Amino acid sequence: MPAVLEIEGLRKTYKSRRRGTRNALDGFDMRVDAGQVHGFLGPNGSGKTTTLRTLLGLIRPDGGRMTLLGHEVPAALPTVAGQVGAIVESPQFFPHFSARDTLSLLAGAGEVPATRVDEVLELVGLRDRAGERVKTYSLGMKQRLAVASALLKNPKLLILDEPANGLDPGGIREMRTLMRTLAESGMTVVLSSHILGEIQLICDSVTIISLGRRVAFGPVDEVLAQHSSGAVRVRLEAVSDLPTATEALTRAGIRVTGHPDHLMLAGVDKPAMITRLLAEQNLYVSELAPIAVDLESVFLELTATAPVPGQHRQVDESTKVGGTGQPGATGGGWGA
Amino acid sequence: MSLYRTELRRLAKRRFTRYMSLLGLLVLAAVVIGVFFTNQKIGADQMAQAERQAEQSYQEQVRWSEQERAACEQAKTAGTATDGRYPDDCSVITPPPREQIQADWFLPSTFNFRETFDETLIPFAAILALVGFVVGASFVGAEWSTGGMMNLLLWRPKRLTVLLTKLAALLTGMLAVTLPAAVLWFAGFWAVASFRGSTEKMTAGAWQSSALTGLRGVVLVLVLTTIGFALASLGRHTAMALGGVVAVMVVGQFGLGILLSMASVRFTEAWLLPTYAAAWMQKKITLQDWNSCNANYYGECKPDTLDITWQQSSVLLSVGLVVILGAALWAIRRRDIS
Ligand SMILES: Nc1ncnc2c1ncn2[C@@H]1O[C@H](COP(=O)(O)OP(=O)(O)OP(=O)(O)O)[C@@H](O)[C@H]1O
Ligand SMILES: [Mg+2]
User: Fold this and answer.
1) How many CA atoms lie within 13 A of B217 on its CB side?
2) B156 to chain A: which residues are within 8 Å by CB?
3) ipTM for the complex?
């Protein structure tokens, strides 16, 4: 599959005379294949918005290579801009224009047929309020307008920075279906969001960023599988058999934690092996359940941002790949 | 092209643009109406009236000087004329000669198109330049501060093109207001002159001079519009441009004026921007330094003068324009947009 978006070694340093320099992006890599819905995840301040802004030519990178739809950007931006729809972090609009005026002006600037305006307004559910001034809109309505503006071009690549921000549950679900429909129609969607349940539901693949570097990437199930601890819960017919089972399993090199009515096993590759081992001891399994990991716990583990009781994690305290002396270094004890 | 048309549409849709232009036009209309009502046509009636008033005034002078002379002589004979209130020779107290009191002085003010129309172009240009400045500043400043500019750049990544197209649309819009306004202004004062003055002696040369002054006025409007636009783009805020200019005018110009006059620098006005705007419109402004006195053959005191010509003003205007617009263009190319 061809890459629609490719980033290699992207670096962006913010310099401030008083506070020195901050490496917002520190050799960041990313790749999104065509036709995918790609989740772009990372803790606050990890560099998601910076990446997307850089990609769209709003800020100048300090190094690295980026391509969009096979064209080197920012050089080729004028060529590809018409095929890339984007919203960047709670976009603002001129408050005294109505939604329809706003979109119609964008359509005019981008040479999009004016009929498209009403189509997208319908699509995001603003049809009946489109004549009102943006100033009077609620947060979610502004967000819908932003999505509408990104869809206006009928883009090949849709980049959405926190599109669900402020949407109501119905809106989030609608957005989810919309993303899926768009992806099925061949559009590639890059989605940054903090609602990981959502991402897990919609996305084919993800990139996780922490402190300006990539900490994980790939298809969602692969990322989950790589970072699932291989935990399995085992129940036996008779609770009295648990000690025997523990002994047999430990001998086979499996880490076992005993509980009053079940055992938790860690580091299990093939659950079938458990049944065999126990059957050899004439122990019969009444339940064998691999514990599913969800994206949220993987994310917290990978970025080391899980809350710890009694501590207040500060922003920028997250996993630093390949760096030393950073707060919350890789694999730190803060995992889920 | 589509961007240009869109920007024109955006400009026209802005309520601020509409209200400011309307306000400017209303002020201009008020000026024309005011001039209309404060002027009168000079006919035989007015002439006769003025003659009567001149005669009356002469008679008053005669009466007054006679009274004074009588008082003087009385004081002489009483021997109290020592306080210097009266001259030694009472006969020098005479009324002014009759012909010195001119009937012209008593004529009501009248609008002579040839003499006055060019002057009226100064407030015309000033008012529209002000409108252009704030409209230009708000057009791009509000776009920056509300994030509209960022949205637009997602569609049109060529930043210089975007900014220059916006400017072109703005100038077109300003011209679309200024040119008809100029025609109306001309028509208005032609009417004022026809009904409340005279349109005589409008030779080809006079026409040409008026047309050129009008043209310079239009240029001034466009330059100030561009400067407002560029300043707001540079500061990414309407208020930045307006505040900047208020600061320059109030602190810079007033302060500078006071400082310079305290330091008794000659020709302080030569350091003030409005002088150059006026020189641009009037072709030449002559500043005088009353502290210097060059006695001429007749013993009269002639102050030193300094001419400021429209060419000098044009240099100043172009340099200012190039520097400020250049800075705005450079900034939009270089700076991150967030
Ligand atoms: N204009 C700026 N000047 C200086 N530092 C900046 C600027 N913009 C962003 N940063 C810094 O760059 C880092 C990355 O910011 P970015 O906005 O990309 O985070 P993010 O991943 O989008 O976070 P969030 O989830 O909160 O939206 C942060 O540390 C931020 O403080
Ligand atoms: Mg962000």
Assistant:
1) 26
2) 78, 81, 109-110
3) 0.80
Q: What is the CA(A16)–ligand 1 centre distance, in A?
A: 14
Contact list in B for residue A86 (CB cut-off 8 A) is 154
Amino acid, res. B261: S
Phi, psi of A94 (to 5 degrees): -60, 115
* Predicted confidence (pLDDT) per residue in B84-101, tens digit: 777 777 777 788 887 788
pLDDT exceeds cutoff 50 at B191: yes
* Closest to A203 in 3D by CA, of A39, A91, A14: A39
B283 DSSP assignment: S
d(CA A290, CA A232): 4
pLDDT of residue A323: 56
What chain B residue is nearest to A105 in terms of C-alpha separation? B6
d(Cα B6, Cα B27) in Å, to the nearest integer?
Answer: 29
Residue with tokens 């036709």: A35
For the record, the structure tokens of B297 come out as 């053959």
Contact between residue B260 and residue B270 where contact means Cβ atoms under 8 Å apart: no
Helix axis angle, A139-151 to A99-109, nearest 10°: 20
CA–CA gap between residue A108 and residue B9 (Å, rounded): 9
For ligand 1, atom 18: residue with the closest CA: A47
CA atoms in the 13 A half-sphere facing the CB of B264:
3
How many Cβ atoms from other residues are within 10 Å of residue B230's Cβ?
Answer: 26
Cβ of A81 and B156 within 8 Å? yes
pLDDT in tens, A65-109: 999 999 998 899 999 999 999 998 877 899 999 999 999 999 999
Q: Inform me whether the C-beta atom of residue B166 falls under 8 Å from chain A C-beta atoms.
A: no
Write down the pTM of the prediction.
Answer: 0.84
Using pLDDT thresholds of 50, 70 and 90, give the confidence band for residue B243.
Answer: confident
CA distances from B241 to B165, B229, B309 (A): 20, 8, 28
Closest CA to A241 of A279, A270, A269, A271: A279
Average pLDDT over residues A133-152: 91
**Cβ contact, residue pair A81, B155, below 8 Å:** yes
Cis ω for the linkage preceding A74 (within 30 of 0):
yes
**8 A C-beta contact, residue B146 and residue A105:** no
Round to whole Å and give the CA distance between A312 and A305.
Answer: 10
Residue at token pair 């997208």: A120
**Closest alpha carbon to A41 in A198, A228, A230:** A198
> Measured from the CB, is residue A53 less than 6 Å from ligand 1?
no
Contact B72, B32 (CB under 8 A): no
Question: Atom 27 of ligand 1 has which residue's CA nearest to it?
Answer: A44
Predicted confidence at residue B70, as pLDDT, reads: 84
Q: How far is CA A303 from the centre of its chain?
A: 12
For A138, residues 6+ apart whose C-beta sits below 8 A from its C-beta are A166
* pLDDT band per the 50, 70, 90 thresholds, residue A332: very low
Predicted local distance difference test score (pLDDT) of residue A334: 33
If you average pLDDT over every residue of chain A, what do you get? 86
Give yes or no for residue A212 CB within 6 A of ligand 1: no
State the number of CA atoms in the 13 A half-sphere of A24 facing the CB.
Answer: 20
Query: What residues are neighbours of ligand 2 (ion), with CB under 5 Å?
Result: A 48-49, 89
Q: Determine the Cα–Cα distance for residues A10 and A26; give it in Å rounded to an integer.
A: 7
